[in-house]
């Protein structure tokens, strides 16, 4: 029996964020994938609660770096079907906080490519914010309290046009997930080293 | 025709003397390899990180090759640039790595180097921000003669890449 598509099953969570200079954070996420892909189950985009960081620092994914985690523990349950490995799904993240006047400001964008192999994966996604394109814009945004943002957060999942972006990386988001595939081999694909027969 | 998918992320860089960096990258493959989908070259964002130990590019890579040969396996070539305080980009490192032929997820670290000239040329380039560059960057990934080329060792570029193969077994190829 041959299948005319293969499937990807994703169970996981957006666990927490580590931002050394920011607290009181929430996260918007969305899933983007190629034209030959479709989400067959689960929510493709969502928003977490707003979290105040834990008093206890923990490992952030970066060498010798401890920071206080903002725990979200937000579930991700998704199933995909596809006919082509090209366009393998990405999780797009945008972390927001509040400035001193209580306005929502972005604290980091990030993109995570889902693993290509079945198994349990822990991913620390580095986050970054765009910088003002000139010092005048930087001064204005400081005065007006409006930090630069990407018009569409999915920009961070694309390869084109990135050279014009000047960013400052800050913080990471921890994601744990388990990934399963169905019919990938039957489709002729090999995504693991072959075992000797 | 066998197919190769290269799906991953050009993560970033570490251990460079300055951390405000960007990267120009491309995948080079031999004759007999055909790019079916995706961008085989790109330029990353410029990151000025809060934590100066690690520069974040987080640049997506998603490439679909068709091939009739197993020779000329794709390589990733990177050119790292440093942005100085005047906003100019200066060459900061060259490097390459083979895309692994073993399917699965791989974490790669590319060691880099840059050409150096005489002491006086180095001094003037540090003042004017005009680092020596290669005329022909094929030297970076091709086994060409590097005799009498003097270089300085630079930092590491980090890549996270998944390789998915298709229809190799039908040709009796094990990777």
UniProtKB/TrEMBL annotation, chain A:
Compartments where located: Cytoplasm, Cytoskeleton, Cilium basal body
Organism of provenance: Geranomyces variabilis
Top-level taxon: Eukaryota
InterPro entries: C2_B9-type_dom (IPR010796)
Protein name per its UniProtKB record: B9 domain-containing protein 1
Primary subcellular site in the record, as a coarse category: cytoplasm
Keywords for the protein's UniProt record, in alphabetical order: Cell projection, Cilium biogenesis/degradation, Cytoplasm, Cytoskeleton
GO biological process per UniProt: cilium assembly
Gene: B9D1
GO CC, alphabetical: MKS complex
tRNA processing is among the record's keywords: no
Entry similarity comment: Belongs to the B9D family.
TrEMBL record, chain B:
Any single biological process term in GO: cilium assembly
Annotated TM spans: none
Subcellular location(s) per record: Cytoplasm, Cytoskeleton, Cilium basal body
Name of the encoding gene: B9D2
Swiss-Prot/TrEMBL keywords: Cell projection, Cilium biogenesis/degradation, Cytoplasm, Cytoskeleton
Signal peptide as annotated in the record: none
Any one GO CC term of the record: MKS complex
Main location: cytoplasm
The protein's name in its UniProt record: B9 domain-containing protein 2
The organism's place on the tree of life at top rank: Eukaryota
